[in-house]
């Protein structure tokens, strides 16, 4: 099966050379040219590995790496660091990068590191921490890539927060999730809202995706604990 690689880099020359080489080796390669879009793609799509440059416009590779790990995205990641920037290597590994390689590098070395990394970690198909582009439960179909949800082929309007909430439920289906966890993971670490807010938003989400919101079929309440998504 083709391994899917996300390459986040803004130098057109390097993007072209490395992309060509990876494709010749049989990889499927997607590229992003800045940190923001790289983060969005790495969060919303499934990749087998990410090659991430540190020096990027809009958001540095270090920030992208940290945000990905905080969001629970565990895709294997190789960081490209500039020569002499030892601090980037240390910080990168601390923030959750699996390996790093210093620019300028030999293509063959990068390929060897990438292969080693892909062998070392289980493939994303075995441990789906990020859902594939489309997920369906009951009559509801979620397209993560396009951030669209429909039920019985009718579009459902979700707020950005509701979408993140639904996404978190799907990613953790079957697990009991506390309100505090939802606050931390969906609202963010510094959210100044009470757990009651979580209940309100879950209720709204149920209104939109459940056939009968008073007797939810997918987002269940686990009394005294939180919620559990089944679907
Ligand atoms: Ca760069």
Task: Give structural notes.
It contains eight helices and twelve strands. By secondary structure, the chain is an alpha/beta fold. It has two domains: 117 residues, 3-Layer(aba) Sandwich (Rossmann fold), CATH 3.40.50; 96 residues, Winged helix-like DNA-binding domain superfamily/Winged helix DNA-binding domain (Arc Repressor Mutant, subunit A, Orthogonal Bundle). The strands form three sheets. It has a five-stranded parallel β-sheet with strand order 2-1-3-4-5, sandwiched between helices. Strand 3, helix 3 and strand 4 form a beta-alpha-beta unit. The protein is elongated and about 60 Å long. It starts with a strand and ends with a strand. Bound molecules: calcium ion. The site of calcium ion has 6 residues, from loops.
By oligomeric state, this entry counts as single chain
What integer value in Å does the Rg equal? 19 Å
Shape: elongated
> What is the fold-level CATH name, i.e. the topology of the largest domain?
Rossmann fold
Bound molecule kinds, no repeats: calcium ion
Distance from first to last alpha carbon: 27 Å
The unreliable regions are 124-129
Question: By CATH's scheme, which homologous superfamily of the largest domain applies?
Answer: Response regulator
Rounded mean pLDDT score:
87
Q: Structural class, please?
A: alpha/beta
How many H/I helices?
Answer: 8
CATH class value of the largest domain: Alpha Beta
CATH architecture annotation of the largest domain: 3-Layer(aba) Sandwich
**What percentage of amino acids are in beta strands?**
15-25%
Biggest beta sheet attributes:
5 strands, parallel
Along the chain, the helix and strand elements come as EHEHEHEHEHEEEEHEHHEE
């Amino acid at each position: 099966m083709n391994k899917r690689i996300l390459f986040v880099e803004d130098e057109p020359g390097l993007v072209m050379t490395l992309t060509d080489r990876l494709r010749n080796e049989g990889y499927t390669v997607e590229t992003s040219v800045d940190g923001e879009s790289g983060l969005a793609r790495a969060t919303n799509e499934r990749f087998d590995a990410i090659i991430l440059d540190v020096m990027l416009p809009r958001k540095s590779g270090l920030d992208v790496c940290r945000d990905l790990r905080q969001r629970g995205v565990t895709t294997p990641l190789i960081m490209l660091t500039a020569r002499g920037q030892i601090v980037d290597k240390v910080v990168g590994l601390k923030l959750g990068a699996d390996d790093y390689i210093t620019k300028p590098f030999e293509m063959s070395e990068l390929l060897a590191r990438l292969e080693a990394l892909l062998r070392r970690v289980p493939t994303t198909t075995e441990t789906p921490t990020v859902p594939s582009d489309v997920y369906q439960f009951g009559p509801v179909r979620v397209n993560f890539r396009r951030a669209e949800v429909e039920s019985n082929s009718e579009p459902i309007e979700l707020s950005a927060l509701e979408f993140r909430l639904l996404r978190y439920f799907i990613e953790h289906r079957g697990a009991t999730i506390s309100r505090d966890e939802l606050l931390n993971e969906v609202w963010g670490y510094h959210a100044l809202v009470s757990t009651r807010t979580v209940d309100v938003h879950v209720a709204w989400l149920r209104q939109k995706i459940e056939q009968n919101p008073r007797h939810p079929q997918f987002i269940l309440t686990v009394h005294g604990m939180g919620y559990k998504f089944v679907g």
